[in-house]
């Protein structure tokens, strides 16, 4: 489920990437009820004055505090994953955005799966445990694609609009 107030940078990249037949469409409503605070804490965020922060440069005029942009069962195990984003040019450079993917087990305990600078896009191709490949968008035209190896997301290839590239 996409949350209200979704990260503008993520939305722009999703619109840009929408032409790619490889992208996975998020479900309209995941049906999951979650403990948002536990998900944010697993992602390394701290609650400051009612907002979730991972970046310390919150004076940046373009700063957008942490938010859950997507909530879905990404790997088909029946438990939710959350994509958390935060935006700041001061913290995240030209990309301006960072992400954290956290996963819950059926008991509701959250753990960090992956995080980094960039804008995540889930692809139809899959790695171990049925986890979707993850394209990390940002400036440029050749993006890294990470694949879950059973323990972590690791570099797999580079793509642009679903085609291999170098750069």
Overview of the structural elements:
A hairpin with a 2-residue loop joins strand 10 (153-160) and strand 11 (163-164). It is built from three helices and eleven strands; from the N terminus they run ααββββαβββββββ. The chain has helices spanning 8-17, 36-42, 89-92, and strands spanning 46-48, 51-53, 64-72, 81-87, 97-104, 110-117, 119-126, 132-137, 143-148, 153-160, 163-164. By secondary structure, it is mostly beta strands. Residues 1-28 have low confidence and may be disordered. The strands form three sheets. It has a five-stranded antiparallel beta sheet. Strands 3-4-5-6 form a four-stranded antiparallel beta sheet. The chain has a domain at 8-119.
**How much of the polypeptide forms β-strand, as a percent range?**
35-45%
Strand order of the largest sheet: 7-8-9-10-11
**Secondary-structure element string:** HHEEEEHEEEEEEE
Q: How many helical elements?
A: 3
Residue share in helices?
A: 10-25%
First-last Cα distance: 33 Å
Radius of gyration: 15 Å
Count of individual beta strands = 11
Report the sheet with the most strands, covering strand number, pairing sense and barrel closure: 5 strands, antiparallel
Helix/strand/pairing category: mainly beta
Shape: flat
What is the mean pLDDT? Answer: 85
Please state the oligomeric state of the protein chains shown. single chain
Low-pLDDT parts are 1-28
